[in-house]
Amino acid sequence: MPGPSLNVGLIGYQFMGKAHSNAWLQAPHFFDLPLHPVMHTLSGRSLAPLQKTAKSWNWQHYTQNYKDMLTNPDIGLIDIATPNNAHAELAIAAAEAKKDVACEKPLARTWSEAKAMHAAVKKAKVNNFLWFNYRRVPAVAYARQLVLQGRIGRIFHVRGLYLQDWIKSPNTPFVWRLSKSVAGSGSHGDLCAHTIDMLRYISGEEFTEVCGTFETFIKQRPLGRMLEGLTASSSGSQKLAKVDVDDAVLFLCRLSGGGLGTFEATRFATGYHNANTLEINGDKGSLRFDLPNFSFLEFYDDTLPASEKGWRKISCTTANHPYAGQYWPPDHPIGYAESFVNTAADITSHIANAKKPADFHANFDDGLACQQILEAVTVSAKEKCWIKTKEIR
Amino acid sequence: MPGPSLNVGLIGYQFMGKAHSNAWLQAPHFFDLPLHPVMHTLSGRSLAPLQKTAKSWNWQHYTQNYKDMLTNPDIGLIDIATPNNAHAELAIAAAEAKKDVACEKPLARTWSEAKAMHAAVKKAKVNNFLWFNYRRVPAVAYARQLVLQGRIGRIFHVRGLYLQDWIKSPNTPFVWRLSKSVAGSGSHGDLCAHTIDMLRYISGEEFTEVCGTFETFIKQRPLGRMLEGLTASSSGSQKLAKVDVDDAVLFLCRLSGGGLGTFEATRFATGYHNANTLEINGDKGSLRFDLPNFSFLEFYDDTLPASEKGWRKISCTTANHPYAGQYWPPDHPIGYAESFVNTAADITSHIANAKKPADFHANFDDGLACQQILEAVTVSAKEKCWIKTKEIR
Amino acid sequence: MPGPSLNVGLIGYQFMGKAHSNAWLQAPHFFDLPLHPVMHTLSGRSLAPLQKTAKSWNWQHYTQNYKDMLTNPDIGLIDIATPNNAHAELAIAAAEAKKDVACEKPLARTWSEAKAMHAAVKKAKVNNFLWFNYRRVPAVAYARQLVLQGRIGRIFHVRGLYLQDWIKSPNTPFVWRLSKSVAGSGSHGDLCAHTIDMLRYISGEEFTEVCGTFETFIKQRPLGRMLEGLTASSSGSQKLAKVDVDDAVLFLCRLSGGGLGTFEATRFATGYHNANTLEINGDKGSLRFDLPNFSFLEFYDDTLPASEKGWRKISCTTANHPYAGQYWPPDHPIGYAESFVNTAADITSHIANAKKPADFHANFDDGLACQQILEAVTVSAKEKCWIKTKEIR
Amino acid sequence: MPGPSLNVGLIGYQFMGKAHSNAWLQAPHFFDLPLHPVMHTLSGRSLAPLQKTAKSWNWQHYTQNYKDMLTNPDIGLIDIATPNNAHAELAIAAAEAKKDVACEKPLARTWSEAKAMHAAVKKAKVNNFLWFNYRRVPAVAYARQLVLQGRIGRIFHVRGLYLQDWIKSPNTPFVWRLSKSVAGSGSHGDLCAHTIDMLRYISGEEFTEVCGTFETFIKQRPLGRMLEGLTASSSGSQKLAKVDVDDAVLFLCRLSGGGLGTFEATRFATGYHNANTLEINGDKGSLRFDLPNFSFLEFYDDTLPASEKGWRKISCTTANHPYAGQYWPPDHPIGYAESFVNTAADITSHIANAKKPADFHANFDDGLACQQILEAVTVSAKEKCWIKTKEIR
Fold it and tell me: What is the pTM of this model?
């Protein structure tokens, strides 16, 4: 007889839908969980892919109308894995229905959407979760432990890069991630949000002041396949769509502890498919993480004897590292998918243990804080000057 | 309505049982398969762990008597994931029952067991599969493609290392992998078999002559927990068990194409938890693979202009690399578990397409070839001289 | 009988004095030069170290009064290796004396000094050289070749870091590099100037617009030993000196070709002693150089077949790479000192071949261009907004 | 007035002649030496290159008859940098003339030559030095310090590779290094001798038993230019010379402390120009050195807390590392040439301080020990079995 269950209703069946389906499926295989997550209902707009995904991943039910899930008392958690333009509507509706709500990042397209979503979960007092999945990469979680142990000390410098190159060719067709009305922004919300969140999580620092700039290198692209809800202009015989989001964003920042930072996110960094990279230099030590080298955290311990100092490549795959011991022996690597599995396991445990929403990381507080920084960078780029984050209200 | 099914009966519920359960579960999620693998029955000797694993991974049935599966006409494939001492009995029984059979590596404890197993599947004409899972790491499969394209050319040198360090402390307790009666050998069959197989697979070369040596650094160990079927000696108040397998093996070899090789497998290489490393130097190019850097293959193309030559780190995570495109976008890494998923998918497709057993890699032919090399090294170590592989009969 | 000579008068006997002495000594040992550089006269202010350096390196003469060299018709080249505060006086005097002049970087403490120096060499029509020694690291010179061959294409992104950590401790004593009156700036002119110049040299791009910020993490330091010409405040029993230069500088930029850049120079990046690092991402390929990995250039060729793309680590130590063939066989590495030797050889050849001053890289034009960028960053940091480089006049 | 001098007589003007000339020239520039090494006389057989090298490097005298130096009472040290076939004659003559003698590695072509040379210096009681220059790479010297501090502990495994690829093409012409009468052996004495010596130096272990094999992949080569003293066969219109030395050597070994080793040296490892690589795995820690990454030693400290263990890349360029502090600030790398400079400085200091010949490393004792191992491998390859080193007499 199974123990008590957590019935999950997932919205979205594309890239993130697949990652979340896998997470809910696998979490109980690798974690001893106090609640058993049940893949109860999958929701999405188009019937064919909805049915296909539901069947492939063995969801018990599916519906084209997500509101069916809100009124179903069996469902405890609404998990939002849609494109960004649906986040606000869905999260607010879920909160109002008193459902716990987990939302993919970035929290919202805009600062005002984010504030409304945040207010909704606060008002409803529901558990709220943001899928900043990289927080639960073992190396990233271990980085935070080192900071908390005082191994890095006062932070002088941070450097965050999120480098991709998948749209550097002008022939790469237009997709929803290049539309402001759907995505809200380009690399800024999609990529930079991850790195900003990682820095906040690992270091505990806040961004006090920022100055950034945006660029769209390629202003219009062929419209490869019809995108739901998007209209396209036409150039000669080929339909073209206008890219109205950033291809790249750069910003400098000052941190609450007195440190300085540089951040960059781009989809035009040839040679980097998915390099979410973060470095921190403190007076006691330094850290480096690079997503393609998923298993490793690099640590420089400046308190060692002078001749012995060096960058140390720690394989965070042992039972002594966060999450890793749930899977395989050391250096039998896990990957990207398991960062979602770990998150699903932690969400489940949080709900089971009836902890306060504020005790979970990352929650909508973290999403809002990240969105405030994104917005401050956007304003600074428009005004071509430095902006204090707290002035974004 | 699901399509036709492949009902799998798995024997074993420990480390490999978990890896195989995951493989059968996940294969249809990431591959479009012509048959649907069904997790039909799990078998094992001890009831409690058997039940627990069966339930956790949602096996439809379980049994403590594997023969129940052999007589069940619904079951098409017997998958053996037990310790090595059960391989021969189970595989031969499965073949005699006309079941297709998949066996964990190494094929057997000994050369004579291996020959008997091989004869059984040949006689029964059943499909036979060996879980040399590293063949289906994308970087390894891609390495073979480069060789087949002629990018490496005539092979001068190969270097294979399988380095672990998990028993280097004398306090590490005795486990079944240290018992000759259970495991057959130590690092030789457990680790070196993998590297030998990888070389055969990637290069197509055979080992013509070998000369090796073994060492057991720590001769007896504390008996941590009761091991099924093992008796222990006792030293004072603490029970000690004799380690009668190799801690490490080294060998030199000559290859069919005229090249030279060095191989080493050990559980005493401090700093290496699971470094299955293979290098190949040919007259046109060179290759390097290292398991902890799972996503990458290093390639040196000696046909490039002189100033441009260099070791190239290829992230084998794109849709252009074997298997990788079934999962996530580039540089969203997969890991160890997916090498089993890929194998399960290929086994399923092979059976569905009714191909000849000999068309599948790796099958019992490959297992036997590997075992012959292992045996030749063993003989050479005893005789302290070089041995021709073909003299092992 | 030796061929015709180039008599060199060097000013400075400290770190750079040693590097230049070595360069003039070694250039004829590794290069076939049309002129023989002669170590004619060494000049400096303090007699004891002057005599010691002159003797150790076998300078033929020495003088405490550099003007002796200006009036000596035998001397053809005045080489300035002093702290920055003497550059302007010495270079202008040398030019007025119609001597060819080579100057250490940065050209000057300030934009106005730089303009005066530049005007002086232009008016005198003398050969003028700036020791941006990193231009003549083989990997850097080869990077430029790849750009010129069109292997990088349109540049989207550049990232320049010059990371050191030698003063991150508050106990590190005050030295001349921390004094604005002597050095002009801190990490900005000392380090960032190198990386800016490398980018200009390798890519041919100009900086059109910048926005930066400075930080001095530790505002005063113990006065370790008496520094010539500096007065110190006193705090209790220990004398303290005020640090009035930047410990770190960060800036964003836009480039003439439409690309974006981030630059950072700091003496507080724990774990990095001397990491002068430059990355360039173009639409055809990408490059990475990192000074501690001196021998290597990393190149990503995006025109290769999709499955074969990867970062390639080219050991620029062969006869096919700039300068390297003058020394030892491949992968018998040269180092930092040889970047000066290569520069001395090129200066000598330039003078021998009576080329136009403008034909040499780097010359005072390059020094002035770099200084203009440094100044634009300084202004932008004061005004907290973006500044167009060309507005610095 | 200079202090007392050490007048050096160098024999040889090719590759090693250049490396030694540079070493004697530079040693006093970077080290405070108790004796001043004077570049007194250069000797060689062919007048033109002798004169050219003598002039370029400023040798005070030159002679085609090395015996002139033996009878010159001013000369204190005879430095032998010739091809191997002259080592024995020159070293024995120098010893008999009561000159201190420094010899390039390998000590000799053969075991019997080596014994005669060793006997000669013992009988003459002269200082004797062997240029195993890699002992004085800072990272290598530091590796020994770590072993001596007990940081590695009991050694389980060593792996030595010396990989080059310069003759892998059959078009590479014949040179003296491919002639047994001149070189004695191929990669064995040229390359493997270095790695064997590095292991002896770093670990203090001796080789008790070996088993090896040789290969000559390409048996004859075009005779590019006339080689002194060699006759060539002829094939059609092109002259071909027979390669009668090994292109590659591999051997296994057992060490005095109970560990196991694999060694390989080859000129056919495509992608490796000069990779002299050594790894050591002990029960307390592990070490890795790789010549092309000259500045770095990798260290794995197994005594750290479990979660913090990792391979640490130590840049041995600081004042806390051997030799490095004599040159430039940290991470301003030195290179291959400085390993000779360091050796020249140590030889000079040794002579100045009138230490016993046995106190210097490496001396002819070390050369003899290395030659004994080389010989044991040679015998084992002939007999195709293991050989105890001490049986070589």
Answer: 0.96
